[in-house]
Amino acid sequence: MGDNVALHRKGHEAFSRGDMDYLAELFAPDILWHVAGRSPVAGDYRGRDAVFEFFGSLAQLSGSTLELEDQFFMGQGDRTVALFKLKATRGEKVLDHDFCEVVRWENGKVAEDWGFAFDQYTYDEFWS
C-alpha cells in the first residue's frame, strides 16, 4: 500500500516535469483512464498510447500551461487517492480547480485511473 502511494506521488511529479518515459514504465500497457464529464476531453482512454494522446490534447488546449499542485495522497489495498489543484489557462479562461484522482494498481503499475473534478460544470466549460 505505502509503495503505491509513493508511486502515485512519483507519477504526479513525472507528469509535472513532462517525463513520459517514467509514466510509460508506470502505466500498465492496457491502462484504462476515465475522464468524467461532457467536455471534449471526457471519455475513456485505453492503452498507453491513448492516454498519452489525451495528455497531448490537454497540453495543446491549454498551451502547455497545465499544472498539478499536490495536496494529499492516501491508499489502501490496490487503490490510491490523490487530491490536488489542477491549474491551466486557455485563452481568457482560467482553471484553478480542486480535483480527485483514484488509481487502481496491479503489480506496481497503474491499471486504471478515474479523475473527478469537484465542480464538473466548471471543468467541462474550461475544456469546451
Model description:
The chain is α+β, with helices and mostly antiparallel strands and 128 residues long. The chain has helices at 2-17, 20-26, 48-61, 120-127; strands at residues 27-35, 43-46, 67-76, 79-90, 93-106, 109-117. The protein has one domain: Nuclear Transport Factor 2, Chain: A (Roll), CATH 3.10.450.50. It is 35% helix and 45% strand. Strands 2-1-6-5-4-3 form a 6-stranded mixed β-sheet. Strand 5 (93-106) and strand 6 form a beta hairpin. Helix 1 runs antiparallel to helix 2 (20-26). It starts with a helix and ends with a helix.
List the helices and strands and how they pair.
Layout: H1 2-17, H2 20-26, E1 27-35, E2 43-46, H3 48-61, E3 67-76, E4 79-90, E5 93-106, E6 109-117, H4 120-127
Parallel strand pairs: 1-6
Antiparallel strand pairs: 1-2, 3-4, 4-5, 5-6
Helix pairs in contact: 1-2
The gist of it:
By secondary structure, the protein is α+β, with helices and mostly antiparallel strands. The chain contains 4 helices and 6 strands; from the N terminus they run ααββαββββα.
